[in-house]
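tool=predict chain=A
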Amino acid sequence: MPPLVTLTTDFGLKDAYVAAMKGAMLHVEPSLRIVDVTHQVDPQDVMGAAFVLLQVIPFYPEGTVHLVVVDPDVGSARLPIAGRFEGHLFVGPDNGLLSLLLRGSEPDQVVVLDQRSFWRTEQPARTFNARDLFGPVAAHLASGRALDEVGTPTDTFRRLHWAHPLADDEGIQGFVVHIDRFGNCVTNISREVIEKDPRSRHAKCYVGSTIIEGVHDTYTDVPQGEPLALLGSSNHLEVGVNGGNAATLLTIHKGSPVSLVYGDG
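tool=predict ok
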């Protein structure tokens, strides 16, 4: 099987950044298969990139290299790192994203990418490490190089933590973590949290400019143009509109609070 790399960035496709990075990778390994997860992560949104990638990783085989370049501190003293966890490899800046993907677990191995012979150039562009450092190293790893060949082992990397929803006897409070291109608003309230209390399915959902009754299973559970709360394919509560854009119609933004409030029954 040809070596496989998934690619997640905040570069967009208007400019040459993505194509240049892919070219640098293919120069290392011409047989490389590159799968674009997304290049539409909001600029510098590390948590947004992690959330999207968590929906992807389970569907890829062990040995896949996941290259994630969302780099608010590009050009600074932040370190380039790579890690291994559950048979997958992750490459990117030390910005906390690796810890978000781990979700409280520990990686099998993390290295600082300090072996310059695996970079495109020993003097990478300060503002384009994706092309000159991360991309080439990811290609080397996909083609069979070991982590300790391309970097020096470390136990230190930046750690960020997901904000968990708050649940009590009156309901569940969370917030919107992702809005997809259809305007569906995905929250940090997981199926697991919802199913802990049977009252959740009949709760009132307060979000944006509306109040929604109950938690549904699919968009067509309500008439065309009507809003609903449902458990989506990410196994998180989301707010949508059947045939419409919930974010626009209901004045919802990333970070908007979402409350499920139980009734008396």
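The first helix runs from residue 17 to 28. The helical segments are 17-28, 46-54, 97-102, 129-142, 147-150, 191-195, 246-249.
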